[in-house]
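Per your request, structure below.
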């Protein structure tokens, strides 16, 4: 069991990490990959140009994600099967409900 001073020191350390925008993660993996995962996390935490390039490359290779581009929503709407369906979206105008109900 850690002492009160140790608990305060841990809380203070984690608070400073949070202020810098860093978080703690627990991941599962093979023992042989531990050093690799730690070195990748260290590089990404630097948050510089090299970290951005590594982040983009990892996202492309691992997740298969491309970096976000402008116009993706519009492109998705243009691919919709309802394009050119000539839908009538006009609504009937009514007076509404009787307020005395």
């Amino acid at each position: 069991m850690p002492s009160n001073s140790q608990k305060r020191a841990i809380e203070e350390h984690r608070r400073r990490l949070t202020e810098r925008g860093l978080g703690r993660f627990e991941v599962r993996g093979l023992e042989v990959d531990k050093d690799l995962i730690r070195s990748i996390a260290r590089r990404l935490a630097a948050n510089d140009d090299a970290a951005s390039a590594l982040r983009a490359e990892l996202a492309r290779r691992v997740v298969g994600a491309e970096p976000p581009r402008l116009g993706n929503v519009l492109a998705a709407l243009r691919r919709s099967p309802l394009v050119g369906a000539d839908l009538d979206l006009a609504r009937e105008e009514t007076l509404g409900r009787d307020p005395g109900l």
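The mean pLDDT is 86.

Regards,
D.
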